[in-house]
User: Fold this.
Amino acid sequence: MSTKENILKNALELFSDEGYENTGVQKIAEVCGVTKPTLYHYFGSKEGILEEIFAQKLSIFFEKLNKAAFFEKSHEEYALRSTLENVISCFFNFASHEMKFYKFYLLSAVSFNHSQLNRVSENYHKKQFEIVKQIFFEAEKLHGNMKGRASRFTVSFIGMINSYITLMYVENETLGRKDVKEACRQFMHGIFS
Assistant:
């Protein structure tokens, strides 16, 4: 593992376990076995480390999410269900393989306004929102009753996905294909489905 990778790995562990605001540069340097000047050489600041962690982890996720969110309009409801299942699966897989990061990413969504964590994470959360929102914009062209509600559907959909992921973390379970279908059915048809 390179020095840079070592710093990123250990910094993520510290940010996730102790909180971003509670983790100082000195602590990161000590845990990594490097000096503060070495850390500054690679990243410039603690915020620079945070930016690199988010960029590395989320670039791969967003690439997969963009593919999953492609809405094929040919078969109407089936196409929407299929697309939503693909997106749910993408989230579940990422959250399963990147548990430390995804927990931290979820927390960053509710970080204090104007904090470093908020400044770095805000655009990533917006990008995620816009990718998912595009599905509902496309779907409303086929389903008139959806018109003008893409933002609300997006918030509800992502919130439901993250609730399943949180449950997975709390109950130490694995989310599989059955859970993907159940989550999609719950979103599309409500709690009485």
Observations:
- The CA atoms of residues 167 and 173 lie 8 Å apart.
